């Protein structure tokens, strides 16, 4: 069956997410993206993504109107839920603590900072359960929480002569199968902030993917719809 422009764009989106996850290197991405924009049939599109399923989800068929599965920092949420917690809390007194990288957040995690600070990074974390409560208590100190845009995060805290709330946020759609993280507590003459942003590595891969896509579009425009360098009109005249 002939492929539509919408189907080509959906395959291009799957390829962008794959390179953002590190599943494809830039050379592979560039080659597959160019092939996607040149594809005329489903048979040409399907091989470009058949080895790129999102773990725990199924890739929608090329001819389906269903949206592509969420990937990026939201990839494989089911596999990131469960297991033994590696940390149940953090404590800082005249100092600091941090939890980041690959770690497993306890079902109930308590963070305390007095005359100090703490950092809780959830972007690459696993979760002991689907429902997570993070209690942040700070007295004349600060706690900073960083979450990926696709994680379901609810912030409910109290600031007394201080602040407790959400800060900067990058664009992203909350994944239906992500854990639900509730951040509660209070800040007394201090602050608790929650930012939503991707890792530097993921932002860099997404930027490179976008640049490669623009280059592929530019080359396709120079070649013309028939892939002949734009000479289709000349042949018709002859």
From TrEMBL:
<feature type="region of interest" description="Disordered">
    <location>
        <begin position="199"/>
        <end position="238"/>
    </location>
</feature>
<dbReference type="InterPro" id="IPR012551">
    <property type="entry name" value="DUF1707_SHOCT-like"/>
</dbReference>
<protein>
    <submittedName>
        <fullName>DUF1707 and DUF2154 domain-containing protein</fullName>
    </submittedName>
</protein>
<feature type="domain" description="DUF1707">
    <location>
        <begin position="1"/>
        <end position="53"/>
    </location>
</feature>
<dbReference type="Pfam" id="PF08044">
    <property type="entry name" value="DUF1707"/>
</dbReference>
């Amino acid at each position: 069956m002939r492929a539509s422009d919408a189907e080509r764009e959906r395959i291009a989106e799957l390829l962008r997410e794959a390179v953002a996850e590190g599943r494809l290197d830039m050379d592979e991405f560039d080659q597959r993206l160019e092939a996607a924009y040149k594809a005329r049939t489903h048979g040409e599109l399907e091989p470009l993504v058949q080895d790129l399923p999102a773990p725990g989800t199924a890739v929608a068929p090329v001819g389906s109107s269903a949206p592509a599965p969420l990937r990026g920092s939201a990839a494989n949420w089911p596999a990131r839920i469960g297991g033994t917690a590696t940390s149940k809390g953090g404590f800082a007194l005249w100092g600091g603590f941090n939890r980041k990288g690959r770690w497993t957040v306890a079902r109930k995690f308590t963070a305390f900072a007095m005359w100090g600070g703490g950092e809780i990074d959830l972007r690459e974390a696993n979760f002991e359960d689907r429902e997570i409560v993070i209690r942040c208590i700070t007295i004349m100190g600060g706690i900073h929480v960083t979450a990926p845009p696709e994680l379901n995060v609810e912030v409910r805290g109290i600031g007394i002569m201080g602040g407790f709330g959400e800060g900067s946020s990058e664009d992203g759609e909350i994944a239906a199968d992500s854990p639900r993280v509730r951040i509660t507590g209070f800040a007394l003459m201090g602050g608790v902030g929650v930012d939503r942003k991707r890792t530097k590595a993921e932002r860099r891969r997404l930027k490179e993917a976008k640049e490669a896509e623009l280059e592929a579009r530019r080359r396709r425009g120079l070649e013309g719809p028939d892939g002949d360098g734009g000479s289709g009109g000349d042949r018709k005249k002859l």
